[in-house]
């Protein structure tokens, strides 16, 4: 019995190390770490976005899709598309959204995606990646698209609104932009 426990423990440790090494390699390879949007920001977006059946919301780098799940449940008439390049968050996102007919998860590089149907774009990136995001938004989005960035400003763009954590009043903010 002790041997079985030790073998299971060892297997769990090996799996954890593999996931950590994979996350490190993917972060170095793609330039973006896997970090989820905080719960307060998901709640604020769910409660304050006004989406209709005409909206197509893209989350670029959707991770495990907690935002898409929250929005997909609240706005069943809108369409949601998540794009994730790392394999394990992609698989988790597919699993979490399997019962939401209005949510689709794609595996791939969002910098290479066709975003022409988007009415809303959401992303949570890091400072050194924001110039690539700004270039993507300028090139691939039509006028009128709402852009939401968490934590980091889009270079040379002016937000129409910034929302701080309502509990603390400081820290990373939701930034709303209009193309």
Specify the CATH class of the largest domain: Alpha Beta
H and E order = HHEHEHEEHEEE
Residue share in β-strands: 15-25%
Strand elements, count:
7
Overall, the morphology is globular
The radius of gyration is 18 Å
CATH homology superfamily name of the largest domain: Vaccinia Virus protein VP39
| Through-space gap between termini | 62 Å
Number of helices: 5
Question: Which blocks of ≥5 consecutive residues have pLDDT under 50?
Answer: none
Query: Strands of the biggest beta sheet: in what spatial order?
Result: 3-2-1-4-5-7-6
CATH architecture of the largest domain: 3-Layer(aba) Sandwich
Largest sheet: 7 strands, mixed
The percent range for helix content is 25-40%
Give the overall average pLDDT. Answer: 89
Q: Concise description?
A:
The protein is an alpha/beta fold and 179 residues long. Helices cover 39% and strands 18% of the residues.
């Amino acid at each position: 019995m002790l041997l079985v426990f030790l073998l299971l423990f060892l297997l769990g440790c090996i799996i954890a190390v593999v996931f950590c090494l994979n996350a490190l390699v993917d972060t170095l390879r793609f330039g973006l770490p896997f970090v989820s949007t905080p719960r307060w920001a998901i709640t604020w977006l769910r409660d304050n976005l006004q989406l209709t059946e005409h909206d197509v919301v893209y989350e670029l780098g959707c991770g495990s899709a907690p935002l898409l799940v929250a929005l997909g449940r609240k706005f069943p008439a809108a369409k949601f598309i998540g794009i994730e390049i790392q394999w394990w968050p992609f698989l988790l996102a597919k699993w979490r959204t399997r019962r939401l007919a209005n949510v689709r998860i794609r595996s791939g590089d969002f910098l290479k995606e066709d975003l022409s149907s988007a009415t809303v774009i959401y992303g949570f990136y890091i400072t050194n990646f924001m110039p690539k995001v700004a270039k993507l938004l300028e090139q691939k989005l039509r006028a009128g698209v709402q852009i939401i960035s968490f934590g980091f400003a889009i270079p040379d763009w002016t937000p129409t609104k910034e929302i701080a954590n309502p509990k603390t009043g400081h820290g990373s903010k939701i930034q709303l932009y209009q193309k």
